[in-house]
Protein backbone atom coordinates (compact mmCIF):
# COMPACT_ATOMS: atom_id res chain seq x y z
CA UNK A 1 0.00 0.00 0.00
CA UNK A 2 1.20 3.52 -0.76
CA UNK A 3 1.48 5.98 2.11
CA UNK A 4 0.85 9.71 1.68
CA UNK A 5 4.56 10.40 1.82
CA UNK A 6 5.21 7.88 -0.95
CA UNK A 7 2.68 9.67 -3.17
CA UNK A 8 4.37 13.01 -2.55
CA UNK A 9 7.78 11.54 -3.44
CA UNK A 10 6.41 10.12 -6.66
CA UNK A 11 5.78 13.64 -7.92
CA UNK A 12 9.51 14.27 -7.90
CA UNK A 13 9.89 11.86 -10.82
CA UNK A 14 9.38 12.86 -14.45
CA UNK A 15 6.63 10.42 -15.44
CA UNK A 16 8.35 8.57 -18.29
CA UNK A 17 6.92 5.22 -17.15
CA UNK A 18 3.40 3.90 -16.52
CA UNK A 19 4.26 2.20 -13.26
CA UNK A 20 2.30 -0.49 -11.44
CA UNK A 21 1.60 0.49 -7.81
CA UNK A 22 3.84 -2.24 -6.40
CA UNK A 23 6.89 -1.17 -4.40
CA UNK A 24 9.45 -3.98 -4.49
CA UNK A 25 12.10 -3.93 -1.82
CA UNK A 26 13.66 -7.40 -1.71
CA UNK A 27 14.38 -10.26 -4.08
CA UNK A 28 15.87 -13.75 -4.06
CA UNK A 29 15.82 -16.06 -7.07
CA UNK A 30 12.37 -15.87 -8.72
CA UNK A 31 10.84 -14.34 -5.57
CA UNK A 32 10.35 -10.66 -4.82
CA UNK A 33 8.69 -8.99 -1.84
CA UNK A 34 7.05 -5.59 -1.62
CA UNK A 35 7.49 -3.13 1.24
CA UNK A 36 4.66 -4.78 3.17
CA UNK A 37 6.28 -8.20 2.87
CA UNK A 38 3.83 -9.45 0.21
CA UNK A 39 5.45 -12.15 -1.90
CA UNK A 40 5.37 -12.27 -5.74
CA UNK A 41 6.87 -14.59 -8.35
CA UNK A 42 8.80 -12.45 -10.80
CA UNK A 43 8.23 -13.80 -14.31
CA UNK A 44 9.74 -10.61 -15.80
CA UNK A 45 13.34 -10.94 -14.46
CA UNK A 46 13.44 -7.13 -14.49
CA UNK A 47 12.78 -7.36 -18.26
CA UNK A 48 15.19 -10.19 -19.10
CA UNK A 49 17.90 -8.79 -16.86
CA UNK A 50 18.17 -10.84 -13.65
CA UNK A 51 18.53 -14.02 -15.70
CA UNK A 52 20.15 -15.88 -12.79
CA UNK A 53 17.47 -14.74 -10.38
CA UNK A 54 17.47 -11.81 -7.99
CA UNK A 55 20.53 -11.32 -5.76
CA UNK A 56 22.28 -14.41 -7.13
CA UNK A 57 24.65 -15.49 -4.36
CA UNK A 58 27.61 -16.36 -6.61
CA UNK A 59 27.49 -12.99 -8.42
CA UNK A 60 26.78 -11.11 -5.18
CA UNK A 61 29.84 -12.48 -3.37
CA UNK A 62 32.18 -11.51 -6.19
CA UNK A 63 30.65 -8.04 -6.65
CA UNK A 64 30.82 -7.45 -2.87
CA UNK A 65 34.45 -8.42 -2.81
CA UNK A 66 35.18 -6.09 -5.77
CA UNK A 67 33.29 -3.29 -3.95
CA UNK A 68 35.75 -3.49 -1.10
CA UNK A 69 38.71 -3.20 -3.49
CA UNK A 70 37.98 -0.62 -6.23
CA UNK A 71 34.70 0.79 -7.58
CA UNK A 72 35.72 2.96 -10.47
CA UNK A 73 38.79 3.61 -12.49
CA UNK A 74 38.83 5.41 -15.80
CA UNK A 75 39.47 3.72 -19.10
CA UNK A 76 42.74 5.61 -19.29
CA UNK A 77 44.11 2.76 -17.19
CA UNK A 78 44.13 -1.00 -17.70
CA UNK A 79 41.26 -2.77 -15.93
CA UNK A 80 41.94 -6.48 -15.27
CA UNK A 81 38.29 -7.58 -14.79
CA UNK A 82 37.38 -5.82 -18.06
CA UNK A 83 40.10 -7.73 -19.89
CA UNK A 84 38.97 -11.02 -18.35
CA UNK A 85 35.33 -10.45 -19.28
CA UNK A 86 36.32 -9.45 -22.82
CA UNK A 87 38.41 -12.63 -23.09
CA UNK A 88 35.51 -14.76 -21.83
CA UNK A 89 33.12 -13.20 -24.36
CA UNK A 90 35.67 -13.77 -27.12
CA UNK A 91 36.27 -17.38 -26.04
CA UNK A 92 32.54 -18.19 -26.02
CA UNK A 93 31.38 -16.37 -29.18
CA UNK A 94 32.15 -15.63 -32.84
CA UNK A 95 33.88 -12.39 -31.81
CA UNK A 96 37.49 -11.28 -31.39
CA UNK A 97 37.20 -7.92 -29.62
CA UNK A 98 34.84 -6.20 -27.18
CA UNK A 99 33.90 -2.61 -26.28
CA UNK A 100 32.12 -1.99 -22.96
CA UNK A 101 29.39 0.53 -22.13
CA UNK A 102 26.48 0.63 -19.67
CA UNK A 103 23.18 -0.26 -21.35
CA UNK A 104 21.50 -1.75 -24.39
CA UNK A 105 20.90 1.57 -26.12
CA UNK A 106 24.54 2.49 -25.64
CA UNK A 107 25.62 -0.88 -27.03
CA UNK A 108 23.53 -0.26 -30.16
CA UNK A 109 24.88 3.30 -30.39
CA UNK A 110 28.37 1.82 -30.37
CA UNK A 111 27.37 -0.70 -33.06
CA UNK A 112 25.90 2.08 -35.24
CA UNK A 113 29.01 4.24 -34.86
CA UNK A 114 31.29 1.27 -35.53
CA UNK A 115 29.41 0.38 -38.73
CA UNK A 116 29.63 3.90 -40.12
CA UNK A 117 33.22 4.34 -39.09
CA UNK A 118 34.18 0.94 -40.56
CA UNK A 119 32.66 1.95 -43.91
CA UNK A 120 34.07 5.44 -43.96
CA UNK A 121 37.51 5.06 -42.39
CA UNK A 122 38.46 1.44 -43.21
CA UNK A 123 36.68 0.83 -46.52
CA UNK A 124 37.02 4.48 -47.56
CA UNK A 125 33.45 4.46 -48.87
CA UNK A 126 30.62 6.94 -48.41
CA UNK A 127 28.23 4.30 -47.07
CA UNK A 128 26.35 5.32 -43.93
CA UNK A 129 22.91 3.75 -44.14
CA UNK A 130 21.79 1.06 -41.68
CA UNK A 131 18.82 -1.18 -42.46
CA UNK A 132 16.52 -2.13 -39.56
CA UNK A 133 13.13 -3.87 -39.50
CA UNK A 134 9.48 -3.14 -38.72
CA UNK A 135 8.45 -3.65 -35.06
CA UNK A 136 12.08 -3.62 -33.97
CA UNK A 137 13.27 -2.06 -30.73
CA UNK A 138 16.84 -0.85 -30.32
CA UNK A 139 16.69 1.75 -27.53
CA UNK A 140 15.71 5.29 -26.57
CA UNK A 141 18.70 7.44 -27.47
CA UNK A 142 18.31 9.59 -30.59
CA UNK A 143 20.21 7.21 -32.88
CA UNK A 144 18.67 4.03 -31.46
CA UNK A 145 15.11 5.35 -31.54
CA UNK A 146 15.74 6.40 -35.13
CA UNK A 147 16.87 2.83 -35.77
CA UNK A 148 13.74 1.51 -34.05
CA UNK A 149 11.02 1.06 -36.67
CA UNK A 150 8.06 1.95 -34.44
CA UNK A 151 6.23 5.23 -34.83
CA UNK A 152 5.13 5.38 -31.20
CA UNK A 153 8.78 5.36 -30.05
CA UNK A 154 9.78 8.09 -32.52
CA UNK A 155 6.78 10.40 -32.15
CA UNK A 156 7.65 13.90 -30.95
CA UNK A 157 11.42 13.56 -31.34
CA UNK A 158 12.02 14.84 -34.84
CA UNK A 159 14.26 15.49 -36.53
CA UNK A 160 15.36 11.89 -36.20
CA UNK A 161 18.92 10.82 -36.88
CA UNK A 162 19.04 10.21 -40.61
CA UNK A 163 20.50 7.19 -42.36
CA UNK A 164 18.17 4.43 -41.20
CA UNK A 165 16.00 2.50 -43.62
CA UNK A 166 13.25 0.19 -42.37
CA UNK A 167 12.25 -3.01 -44.17
CA UNK A 168 9.60 -5.62 -43.34
CA UNK A 169 10.73 -8.32 -40.89
CA UNK A 170 10.77 -11.97 -41.95
CA UNK A 171 9.97 -10.99 -45.55
CA UNK A 172 12.18 -12.82 -48.05
CA UNK A 173 10.87 -10.80 -50.97
CA UNK A 174 12.04 -7.49 -49.47
CA UNK A 175 15.62 -8.65 -48.91
CA UNK A 176 17.01 -7.44 -52.21
CA UNK A 177 16.13 -3.88 -51.16
CA UNK A 178 18.83 -4.11 -48.50
CA UNK A 179 21.61 -3.43 -50.92
CA UNK A 180 22.25 0.11 -52.00
CA UNK A 181 25.52 1.94 -52.51
CA UNK A 182 24.92 3.66 -49.21
CA UNK A 183 24.20 0.61 -47.04
CA UNK A 184 26.91 -0.14 -44.49
CA UNK A 185 25.08 -2.45 -42.06
CA UNK A 186 21.95 -4.34 -41.12
CA UNK A 187 20.79 -4.38 -37.49
CA UNK A 188 18.19 -6.86 -36.24
CA UNK A 189 16.84 -8.82 -33.30
CA UNK A 190 16.51 -12.59 -33.79
CA UNK A 191 13.47 -12.62 -31.55
CA UNK A 192 11.80 -9.23 -31.50
CA UNK A 193 11.10 -8.71 -27.81
CA UNK A 194 9.28 -5.40 -27.35
CA UNK A 195 7.75 -5.77 -30.82
CA UNK A 196 5.61 -8.77 -29.78
CA UNK A 197 7.98 -11.74 -29.19
CA UNK A 198 8.41 -12.54 -32.88
CA UNK A 199 11.15 -15.03 -33.77
CA UNK A 200 12.99 -14.52 -37.07
CA UNK A 201 12.68 -17.34 -39.62
CA UNK A 202 15.90 -19.30 -40.09
CA UNK A 203 15.61 -19.23 -43.88
CA UNK A 204 15.16 -15.45 -43.88
CA UNK A 205 18.13 -14.86 -41.55
CA UNK A 206 20.39 -17.10 -43.62
CA UNK A 207 19.39 -15.30 -46.81
CA UNK A 208 20.04 -11.98 -45.08
CA UNK A 209 23.49 -13.16 -43.99
CA UNK A 210 24.33 -14.29 -47.53
CA UNK A 211 23.41 -10.87 -48.96
CA UNK A 212 25.44 -9.07 -46.28
CA UNK A 213 28.52 -11.22 -46.92
CA UNK A 214 28.23 -10.86 -50.68
CA UNK A 215 28.05 -7.08 -50.54
CA UNK A 216 30.38 -6.39 -47.61
CA UNK A 217 27.53 -5.13 -45.41
CA UNK A 218 28.01 -5.65 -41.66
CA UNK A 219 25.53 -8.07 -40.08
CA UNK A 220 24.79 -6.71 -36.61
CA UNK A 221 22.59 -8.64 -34.19
CA UNK A 222 20.91 -6.87 -31.28
CA UNK A 223 21.08 -9.52 -28.53
CA UNK A 224 20.25 -7.10 -25.71
CA UNK A 225 17.11 -9.09 -24.83
CA UNK A 226 17.91 -12.48 -26.41
CA UNK A 227 21.47 -12.75 -25.07
CA UNK A 228 22.99 -14.38 -21.98
CA UNK A 229 21.08 -17.62 -22.21
CA UNK A 230 17.58 -16.18 -22.55
CA UNK A 231 16.75 -18.17 -25.67
CA UNK A 232 18.49 -21.39 -24.58
CA UNK A 233 21.95 -20.75 -26.09
CA UNK A 234 24.35 -18.10 -24.76
CA UNK A 235 23.35 -15.99 -27.79
CA UNK A 236 20.41 -16.54 -30.13
CA UNK A 237 22.57 -16.26 -33.28
CA UNK A 238 24.07 -19.67 -32.43
CA UNK A 239 20.69 -21.29 -33.18
CA UNK A 240 20.62 -19.71 -36.65
CA UNK A 241 24.00 -21.06 -37.79
CA UNK A 242 25.21 -17.59 -38.78
CA UNK A 243 28.36 -15.60 -38.08
CA UNK A 244 27.53 -11.97 -37.29
CA UNK A 245 30.06 -9.16 -37.59
CA UNK A 246 28.83 -7.34 -34.48
CA UNK A 247 26.58 -8.35 -31.57
CA UNK A 248 25.22 -5.92 -28.97
CA UNK A 249 24.57 -7.15 -25.44
CA UNK A 250 23.43 -5.67 -22.11
CA UNK A 251 20.54 -6.62 -19.73
CA UNK A 252 21.45 -10.14 -18.54
CA UNK A 253 25.21 -9.67 -18.79
CA UNK A 254 25.51 -8.17 -15.29
CA UNK A 255 22.47 -10.00 -13.86
CA UNK A 256 21.10 -6.62 -12.73
CA UNK A 257 24.32 -4.60 -12.40
CA UNK A 258 24.28 -2.14 -15.35
CA UNK A 259 26.60 -3.11 -18.19
CA UNK A 260 26.50 -3.17 -21.99
CA UNK A 261 28.93 -4.27 -24.68
CA UNK A 262 29.49 -4.88 -28.33
CA UNK A 263 31.35 -7.95 -29.50
CA UNK A 264 32.95 -7.62 -32.95
CA UNK A 265 35.13 -9.53 -35.37
CA UNK A 266 38.72 -8.29 -35.77
CA UNK A 267 37.75 -6.90 -39.16
CA UNK A 268 34.70 -4.91 -37.99
CA UNK A 269 36.57 -3.70 -34.89
CA UNK A 270 39.02 -1.87 -37.18
CA UNK A 271 36.29 0.77 -37.38
CA UNK A 272 37.27 2.07 -33.94
CA UNK A 273 40.67 3.53 -33.20
CA UNK A 274 41.80 5.30 -29.99
CA UNK A 275 39.60 8.35 -29.42
CA UNK A 276 36.79 7.16 -31.72
CA UNK A 277 34.44 6.11 -28.93
CA UNK A 278 34.38 5.92 -25.16
CA UNK A 279 32.41 5.90 -21.92
CA UNK A 280 33.35 7.05 -18.42
CA UNK A 281 31.67 4.14 -16.66
CA UNK A 282 31.88 1.59 -19.48
CA UNK A 283 33.57 -1.61 -18.33
CA UNK A 284 34.18 -0.42 -14.77
CA UNK A 285 35.56 -2.96 -12.26
CA UNK A 286 32.22 -3.60 -10.49
CA UNK A 287 30.15 -4.11 -13.66
CA UNK A 288 32.74 -6.30 -15.36
CA UNK A 289 33.11 -8.40 -12.21
CA UNK A 290 29.33 -8.91 -12.30
CA UNK A 291 29.56 -9.86 -15.99
CA UNK A 292 32.42 -12.25 -15.45
CA UNK A 293 30.73 -14.00 -12.54
CA UNK A 294 27.42 -14.20 -14.43
CA UNK A 295 29.11 -15.99 -17.34
CA UNK A 296 31.13 -18.20 -15.00
CA UNK A 297 27.97 -19.22 -13.13
CA UNK A 298 26.17 -20.04 -16.39
CA UNK A 299 29.09 -22.25 -17.41
CA UNK A 300 29.74 -23.96 -14.06
CA UNK A 301 26.09 -24.59 -13.23
CA UNK A 302 25.21 -25.80 -16.76
CA UNK A 303 22.42 -23.22 -16.83
CA UNK A 304 21.87 -23.44 -20.59
CA UNK A 305 21.06 -27.17 -20.43
CA UNK A 306 18.44 -26.38 -17.78
CA UNK A 307 16.89 -23.65 -19.94
CA UNK A 308 16.20 -26.21 -22.65
CA UNK A 309 14.40 -28.55 -20.21
CA UNK A 310 12.39 -25.75 -18.58
CA UNK A 311 11.54 -24.19 -21.92
CA UNK A 312 10.22 -27.50 -23.30
CA UNK A 313 8.14 -27.95 -20.16
CA UNK A 314 6.58 -24.46 -20.05
CA UNK A 315 5.90 -24.48 -23.81
CA UNK A 316 4.16 -27.87 -23.63
CA UNK A 317 2.01 -26.66 -20.72
CA UNK A 318 1.16 -23.42 -22.57
CA UNK A 319 0.36 -25.20 -25.84
CA UNK A 320 -1.95 -27.52 -23.91
CA UNK A 321 -3.66 -24.51 -22.32
CA UNK A 322 -4.01 -22.92 -25.76
CA UNK A 323 -6.02 -25.97 -26.85
CA UNK A 324 -8.35 -25.46 -23.89
CA UNK A 325 -8.79 -21.68 -24.07
CA UNK A 326 -9.92 -19.80 -27.18
CA UNK A 327 -8.60 -16.53 -25.77
CA UNK A 328 -5.03 -17.80 -26.40
CA UNK A 329 -4.28 -17.19 -30.09
CA UNK A 330 -0.62 -18.13 -30.19
CA UNK A 331 2.23 -19.28 -27.98
CA UNK A 332 5.66 -18.41 -29.37
CA UNK A 333 9.24 -17.47 -28.58
CA UNK A 334 12.50 -19.24 -27.84
CA UNK A 335 13.92 -20.64 -24.62
CA UNK A 336 12.48 -18.59 -21.78
CA UNK A 337 11.55 -15.58 -23.91
CA UNK A 338 7.88 -16.38 -24.28
CA UNK A 339 4.99 -14.53 -25.91
CA UNK A 340 1.36 -15.51 -25.41
CA UNK A 341 -0.84 -13.74 -27.92
CA UNK A 342 -4.28 -13.12 -26.51
CA UNK A 343 -7.58 -11.99 -27.85
CA UNK A 344 -8.11 -8.62 -26.17
CA UNK A 345 -5.69 -6.51 -24.19
CA UNK A 346 -2.76 -8.35 -22.62
CA UNK A 347 -2.54 -5.72 -19.88
CA UNK A 348 -5.78 -7.09 -18.38
CA UNK A 349 -4.09 -10.47 -17.97
CA UNK A 350 -0.96 -8.84 -16.50
CA UNK A 351 -3.16 -7.11 -13.89
CA UNK A 352 -5.16 -10.27 -13.16
CA UNK A 353 -1.91 -12.21 -12.65
CA UNK A 354 -0.63 -9.47 -10.36
CA UNK A 355 -3.66 -10.03 -8.15
CA UNK A 356 -2.49 -13.66 -7.97
CA UNK A 357 1.00 -12.36 -7.09
CA UNK A 358 2.66 -13.25 -10.40
CA UNK A 359 4.54 -10.53 -12.29
CA UNK A 360 4.52 -10.59 -16.09
CA UNK A 361 4.83 -8.03 -18.93
CA UNK A 362 3.22 -7.10 -22.20
CA UNK A 363 4.86 -6.85 -25.63
CA UNK A 364 2.51 -4.71 -27.71
CA UNK A 365 -1.22 -4.62 -27.10
CA UNK A 366 -2.11 -8.30 -27.36
CA UNK A 367 0.95 -10.22 -26.24
CA UNK A 368 1.64 -11.35 -22.68
CA UNK A 369 5.42 -11.54 -22.31
CA UNK A 370 6.76 -14.10 -19.88
CA UNK A 371 10.42 -13.95 -18.86
CA UNK A 372 11.15 -16.08 -15.81
CA UNK A 373 14.74 -16.27 -14.60
CA UNK A 374 16.70 -19.07 -16.28
CA UNK A 375 17.00 -20.58 -12.80
CA UNK A 376 13.21 -20.85 -12.32
CA UNK A 377 12.07 -24.11 -10.69
CA UNK A 378 9.47 -26.55 -12.05
CA UNK A 379 7.29 -25.77 -9.01
CA UNK A 380 7.39 -22.07 -9.84
CA UNK A 381 6.45 -22.79 -13.45
CA UNK A 382 3.57 -24.95 -12.19
CA UNK A 383 2.37 -22.12 -9.99
CA UNK A 384 2.48 -19.69 -12.92
CA UNK A 385 0.52 -22.09 -15.14
CA UNK A 386 -2.01 -22.69 -12.36
CA UNK A 387 -2.59 -18.92 -11.94
CA UNK A 388 -2.65 -18.29 -15.70
CA UNK A 389 -5.31 -21.00 -16.07
CA UNK A 390 -7.44 -19.24 -13.54
CA UNK A 391 -7.27 -15.85 -15.27
CA UNK A 392 -7.56 -16.68 -19.00
C1 LIG B 1 16.39 -5.65 -28.21
C2 LIG B 1 16.67 -4.46 -27.35
N1 LIG B 1 17.60 -3.58 -27.73
C3 LIG B 1 17.90 -2.51 -26.98
C4 LIG B 1 17.24 -2.25 -25.79
C5 LIG B 1 17.58 -1.04 -24.99
O1 LIG B 1 18.27 -1.43 -23.83
P1 LIG B 1 18.41 -0.42 -22.61
O2 LIG B 1 17.07 -0.22 -22.03
O3 LIG B 1 19.36 -1.11 -21.67
O4 LIG B 1 18.99 0.85 -23.15
C6 LIG B 1 16.26 -3.14 -25.35
C7 LIG B 1 15.51 -2.88 -24.12
O5 LIG B 1 14.47 -3.42 -23.86
C8 LIG B 1 15.95 -4.27 -26.16
O6 LIG B 1 15.01 -5.15 -25.79
Q: What is the H level of CATH, i.e. the homologous superfamily of the largest domain?
A: Type I PLP-dependent aspartate aminotransferase-like (Major domain)
* Alpha-carbon distance between the two ends: 26 Å
Report the portion of residues in β strands.
15-25%
- The helix count comes to 13
Portion of residues within helices: 25-40%
- Basic shape: globular
The rounded Rg comes to: 21 Å
Helix-strand string: HEEEHHHEHEHHEEEEHEEEHHHEEHEEEH
CATH architecture of the largest domain: 3-Layer(aba) Sandwich
Poorly predicted regions are: none
Overall number of structural domains: 2
Ligands, deduplicated: pyridoxal-5'-phosphate
Describe the structure in your own words.
With 392 residues, the chain is an alpha/beta fold. It folds into two domains: 4-56 and 327-391, Aspartate Aminotransferase, domain 1, CATH 3.90.1150; 70-300, Type I PLP-dependent aspartate aminotransferase-like (Major domain) (Aspartate Aminotransferase, domain 2, 3-Layer(aba) Sandwich). A hairpin with a 2-residue loop joins strand 1 and strand 2 (31-34). It has helices spanning 4-10, 45-48, 57-67, 80-92, 104-122, 142-147, 151-154, 202-215, 266-269, 285-300, 303-324, 346-355, 378-391; strands at residues 24-28, 31-34, 39-42, 97-101, 129-133, 164-167, 183-188, 191-192, 198-199, 218-222, 246-249, 260-264, 328-334, 337-342, 358-359, 361-362, 367-370. It is built from 13 helices and 17 strands. Bound molecules: pyridoxal-5'-phosphate. Pyridoxal-5'-phosphate (PLP) binds at residues 47, 103-105, 108, 137-139, 189, 193-194, 222, 224-225, 250. Pyridoxal 5'-phosphate binds at residues 104-105, 137, 222-225, 280. N(2)-acetyl-L-ornithine binds at residues 140, 279. Keywords: Amino-acid biosynthesis, Aminotransferase, Arginine biosynthesis, Cytoplasm, Pyridoxal phosphate, Transferase. GO terms for molecular function: identical protein binding; N2-acetyl-L-ornithine:2-oxoglutarate 5-aminotransferase activity; pyridoxal phosphate binding.
Amino acid sequence: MLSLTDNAWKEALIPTYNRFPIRLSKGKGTSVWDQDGEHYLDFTSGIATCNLGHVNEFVKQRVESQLSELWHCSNLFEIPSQEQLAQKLVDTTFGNQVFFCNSGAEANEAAIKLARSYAQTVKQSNAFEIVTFTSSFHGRTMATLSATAQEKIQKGFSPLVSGFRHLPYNDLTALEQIVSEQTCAVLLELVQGEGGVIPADVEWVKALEAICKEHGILLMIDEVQTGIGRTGSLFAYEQYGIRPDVVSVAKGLGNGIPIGAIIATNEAAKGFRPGAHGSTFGGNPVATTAGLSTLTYIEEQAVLQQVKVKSDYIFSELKQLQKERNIIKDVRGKGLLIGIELEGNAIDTVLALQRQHILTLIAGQHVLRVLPPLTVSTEEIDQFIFCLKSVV
